[in-house]
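For the sake of transparency, this paper describes our internal protein records without simplification. Because each token names a local backbone shape, the row as a whole describes the fold. One such record is reproduced below, unchanged from the form in which we store it.
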Amino acid sequence: MNSLLSRALELQQVAHDFMYLETNTAPIYSDDFCRLNKELLVKSDSLFSEKSFDLEEEANLCLALLMGYNATIYDNGDKGQKKQIILDRISDILEQLPASLLKVRLLAYCYGEIYEDVLLQEAHAIINSWGRENLTTEQIGTIEELRNFEANPYPFEEIE
């Protein structure tokens, strides 16, 4: 099965794995790093023109694209423009999404791009409704990612 949703979820996983590259077990060589980066860019570009009329599928696709373009170091000169188009697509669907893990992930990654406090507040409101005793592994990971975005407001941080 090579559905749009499965391809989007695969890109999310590849981008996440690349952003949190495990180097504890074995060194990663520069040629491998470059190859993986290029593969990630190609996967992202191959999905960029895709769209879905299913709200959840479109949300997952937009999340995958934003993650993919954030994770790669490569830019063919249009990455910023593509990220803006993705942010516009997310803006079109965000209000329609129910309070969910997917919505928090979208809010977190959008916050990581534009650092608007309203996104952060909405994400925290959803997280606070979850209850702390029964959090899933995915929820815990998303909370950690959101904290990372909050703690590292690059490129808006001031360097003294």
